[in-house]
Structures are given as C-alpha cells and as structure tokens.
Specification:
- This protein is of the alpha+beta class.
- It has three domains: about 10-60 and about 75-175; about 215-310, Orthogonal Bundle (Helix Hairpins), CATH 1.10.287; about 315-460, Histidine kinase-like ATPase, C-terminal domain (Heat Shock Protein 90, 2-Layer Sandwich), CATH 3.30.565.10.
- It contains nine helices and 13 strands.
- Keywords: ATP-binding, Cell inner membrane, Cell membrane, Kinase, Membrane, Nucleotide-binding, Phosphoprotein, Transferase, Transmembrane, Transmembrane helix, Two-component regulatory system.
- It is a multi-pass membrane protein.
C-alpha cells in the first residue's frame, strides 16, 4: 500500500487534508440524509394523524381552483371500509405504527386496531379511481412513480376502518447536490491554499536537501544557502549553514594534519631505507626493506582512506571500458594472470585516479586469494557494474560484511604478501560510495559448492 502513497511532504500533507475533508463531508452528508429522512417521516406521520383525527366532513382549504383566483374548498377524501386495508402479501410497518399511535393517543383517540404500510400508487384502486384526489397531471396530488403510505384505524367500539393515505415522494436530492458543490468549492479553496503554503515550506527544504547531498560530496566553493520560507525554515537553514561551515573547517584542518603526518612519517622511513643499505647481511637487509615498504604502503592506504570522502579533484567524463582495459593491461604487462572479460562502452563522470585505485585493490585481492582474476563491465538496471571474479576459496557468508571493515582480512597475518593491512576493500568501497555507487562481495557457486568470489563495483549512470 505504501507504493501508492506520495513520497513528498507536500503530497502527503495534501492527501491527509483531502482525506480529512472527504471524511468530514461524508459525515455531513450522512447527518443531512438522516435529518431529511426524520423530517419527512415526521411530516408523513403528522399528515396521517391529521386525517385520522379530523372529522371527515370537515372542509379545509387546499389551494386555488384555477378559476378567477378564488380559493377552492373540498372535503378530506377518506376511505371507510369494513375490512382491514392491509391485503395479503403486504407487510405492516411497526416503527411507523408506533409513531402514529403515540400521536393518536396524545389526541385521546381510543384505538382498537391500527396498521401502517406502504403500497405502490398504481396498485391502490382507491387512488387510481381518483377518489383520493387527482392522479398525475400538473395539479395531480399523486404521482405514478411514488408510493402511497396508508394508515388504517379502527377505533374502539366501531366496526369500520378509517383509512388515510399520503403520497411518499423520493428523497430530496437537491440538498445532497448542494453538499457536493460545497465539497468541490472547499477542495479548491482549502487544498489550493494549503498547497501554496506548503510550497513555501517544501521548496526551501528541497533546496536544503540538495545542498546537503552536494556537501556530502565535498563540493568546493559553495556559497551559504540563502534562508527562505517561514521563520522556522529560515532558522533551520541558518543552523545548517553554521554547521556546514564548521564541518568544512574541521575537514580542512584534518587535511592539513594528515598531510603533516604523512610527511613527518615518510621522511624518517626514507632515511631508514637509505641506512639499511649499510647492513651487510643481504637477507636481513631485504627483510628490513620489506618492513619499511609495508609500513609505507599501509600509510598510503590510511591517508587515502581519510581523504577519499572529500576528494577535491573534479569529476571528468570518462570511458569506463577504456579505463578498465588499461588497468588490466598494466597487470598483463607485469605477467600477472589477469584476464579482460566482456565489456560494454559506458561513459560516466568519474574521478579516474581514484577509480583506478579501487579497481587495482579488487584485482590485488583476487590475485592474492584466488591466484587469477577476470574483469568484466556490464550495464545493469541503470548502473555500470564492474565485476572482478576469482577462483579462490570464497568467504563464509557470515563474514562477508566484516571484510569491509578497516584492517579486516581473510586470514590472520598482517604480512603484505598474504594480505596486507586489510584496507583494500575498505578503500574500494569508500571510492565507490564517493561516486554514489556501492561495492558488494558474492560467493560464486557451481554444483552446490563455492568456486570463487565475485566483487561487484556498481556506479550509477548519471549521463
């Protein structure tokens, strides 16, 4: 059901107001219908009671007779019968009988029997014969499309039934039509006005959201966002501007600090590399050089991981297939068993240097644990997917997520020849996320057994 709900604040607020207004107007329609029904019922019962209580010989004014404009007069047209007016197959109405009885008792009428029921006008011989008044026509009291509400009263001590009839017209639909028109006007006025007000709120929020997304990519040279909208929204934007300025200052300080740390550490490492040349034992000298090289590479990885989240080099439109092919060629030139699989031409805005670093890390892992690597490039559901697969032992399913943590490795040692410091996957994932993408690891399974690992780096196709 959530798929059909609007996702924006504006859409959800307008939907909530529209549903609330619909519920209120529906309740009003029900109340109006019930009030109209009760009014009609009271009028029908009163009309029947008036006829049954009045002397049938009493004359009353009904309207103009159409000649000379003088009022016409006629007797109440009532039926007297020795038998109950309720015929076989007709059902009496207990509720109306009780209501009519209350009125008659209040008029001191002694009731022996009382029946109230409805009958089609066309099925009532008394009405159709014209004895109950004109049928149809412009002055007709009775319409052939209506029902007749009939009440039969037999007073105590009398043998005859006194039968009264009133037409029962259909419900008045004009009130409902007016309510529908009122609802439409309310929708236009209320929802339209609310949409205007909400736009003043959501437009600055949308700008703030876009700004935060851009800031997450460490966009340089951005001027502070101009506060707009209601006072609360303005205060939120100003608070964000202050927070953004503070974060930018902290990141700049960290860049300076990391640069200083890198320089201060690499300088003595370079001096040590020179000094070990004086060591006579060649085997010992090689171990010391390897240790220094290991520290240098680890330091490079740590500094790269710290800087990747806010790289300052701009995005450049790059042929991804050519980039992948060139990295594979580097390994082929070194005699490494790296093979280029299927590729497809895809051009994306990238930071090529960083992406090359991520791809090399994935290939190094494949070579280290699988002995060989195959690299392919495909387009999948709006993403460019670079897949690096190997024929190694894979990773237990429960440990895959942990492989992306810094210094986590597939085997326990820290020797670079068997796994390094464990920052390769962490750095590769950070580079993928820097481009708005993701990195995932999946075991390759054939015939129910793991035959290798596939690392898939997915980049969104923005253009």
């Amino acid at each position: 059901m959530h798929r059909f709900l609007p996702r924006s604040l504006l859409g959800q607020m307008l939907l909530a107001v529209a549903l609330a207004l619909l519920a209120a107007q529906t309740l009003s329609a029900v109340l109006i219908y019930r009030a109209d029904h009760q009014r009609r019922e009271a009028a029908l019962i009163s009309s029947l009671a008036f006829q049954l209580v009045s002397d049938p010989r009493f004359e009353f004014r009904e309207g103009r007779n159409g000649r000379g404009g003088h009022p016409g007069r006629r007797k109440i047209r009532m039926e007297r019968t020795l038998e109950s007016p309720l015929q076989n197959g007709e059902l009496h109405d207990p509720e109306r009988e009780a209501a009519l009885k209350d009125v008659l008792v209040a008029q001191d009428i002694a009731i022996d029997k009382l029946v109230v029921f409805a009958r089609k006008v066309t099925d009532d011989d008394y009405v159709m014969s014209g004895r109950a008044g004109p049928v149809a026509g412009p002055e007709g009291r009775w319409s052939l499309d209506d029902d007749a509400l009939i009440a039969g009263l037999k007073r105590a001590g009398e043998n005859e039934w006194l039968v009264a009839r009133v037409p029962r017209p259909e419900h008045n639909t004009r009130a409902l039509g007016g309510l529908i028109l009122q609802t439409l006007v309310l929708y236009i006025a209320l929802v339209g006005g609310l949409a205007f007000l909400l736009r003043r709120i959501t437009r600055p929020l949308a700008a703030l959201t876009e700004r935060m997304s851009r800031f997450a990519g460490r966009a340089e040279g951005l001027a502070p966002l101009e506060p707009s909208g209601p006072e609360d929204t303005r205060a939120l934007i100003m608070a964000h501007n202050e927070m953004e300025a503070r974060i930018a200052a902290l990141l700049d300080e960290k860049d300076v600090m990391l640069g200083a740390i890198g320089h201060d550490l690499k300088t003595p490492l370079a001096a040590l590399r020179v000094r070990i040349e004086s060591v006579d034992d060649e085997a010992e000298r090689a171990k010391m050089a390897a240790t220094i090289e290991d520290i240098t590479h680890s330091l490079d990885d740590i500094l790269s991981l710290a800087r990747v989240g806010h790289a300052k080099d701009p995005l450049e439109r790059t042929d991804l297939a050519a980039l992948v092919s060139s990295v594979v060629e580097e390994y082929e030139d070194l005699g490494e068993p790296v093979e280029l699989g299927d590729t497809i031409r895809i051009a994306l805005p990238l930071r090529a240097t960083w992406l090359r670093r991520a791809l090399r890390n994935l290939i190094d892992n494949a070579l280290r644990y699988g002995g060989a690597a195959e690299v392919s490039l495909a387009r999948e559901e709006g993403y460019a997917a670079i897949c690096v697969s190997d024929n190694g032992p894979g990773i237990p399913e429960g440990e895959i997520a942990a492989m992306f943590e810094p210094f986590a490795r597939g085997e326990a040692s820290r020797n670079r020849s068997t796994g390094g410091a464990g920052l390769g996957l962490t750095l590769a994932r950070a580079i993928a996320e820097q481009h708005g993408g993701s990195l995932s690891l999946t075991n390759r399974v054939e015939d129910g057994r793991i035959v290798g690992l596939a690392a898939e780096l997915r980049l969104p196709q923005k253009g």
